Amino acid sequence: DEFVFFDAVKSGDLEALNEVISLGTIDFNYADEDGNTPLITASRAGYNEVVSALANAGADLELAAEFPADVDTPLTAASAAGHLGVVKILLEKGALIEGPGRDGRTPLITASAHGQYEVVKYLVDKGADVNAVKMDGTTSLSWAAYAPSADVVAFLVDQGASVDVMDRVDGSQPIHFACQKPGNDTKKVLIRLVDAGADVLARTGVVGPRDQRGVPKVSHFTFPFEAGLAPVGTYYF
């Protein structure tokens, strides 16, 4: 039954799924060999009807994948893949809009990291916190800048996302993340961040060994422009 069940979920076969559900002998939260629950698998694939059927049958909406990953809950899986229909279904069924994965990432942070503008907009419209932080101190704006996704960055900034939030690793701000992974949207992202008040001279401290008191030593600093970006429009980094 479990093999038939997982095959039905992975293929999006609603009829076969309902037949197995009707037997009443399946653990809907049983993880497959990759550590994913049926609901995570269906959410990642964008199977609206399958997701709805599993939720109605009692599948755990917040159960994370067995192995740590960047998409380890049903809602973060759907958010990463840009499946807005699934996102809506999960929220309607009671999924937590700020429900964090193992490292504290929220669905909004995940959607932002993958440049999923429509999902980002919907989550914010439904009340998602644009300044929620992961365990490492990064936010949705940090990851949208890293993607880079100009549309998501502009939207988050307009919604009040902080442009000078620092992570807990080396003090990197969104402008530093934008410089780490140059892409087609990098110029637009940098200009939008600077227009919103990002400091082009902000420095990150690269943490070295700790002293006798346990305080990390800062070995050197990095400016955004040290990523090697050429001048951007009228802005020079």
Automatic annotation (TrEMBL):
Top-level taxon of origin: Eukaryota
PROSITE patterns in UniProt: ANK_REP_REGION (PS50297), ANK_REPEAT (PS50088)
SUPFAM superfamilies cross-referenced by the UniProt entry: Ankyrin repeat
UniProtKB keywords: ANK repeat, Repeat
Pfam families xref list: Ank, Ank_2
Protein's name according to its UniProt entry: Ankyrin
UniProt-listed InterPro entries: Ankyrin_rpt (IPR002110), Ankyrin_rpt-contain_sf (IPR036770)
Sequence ranges of the ANK repeats: 34-66, 70-102, 103-135, 136-168, 170-205
Residue stretches spanning the membrane: none
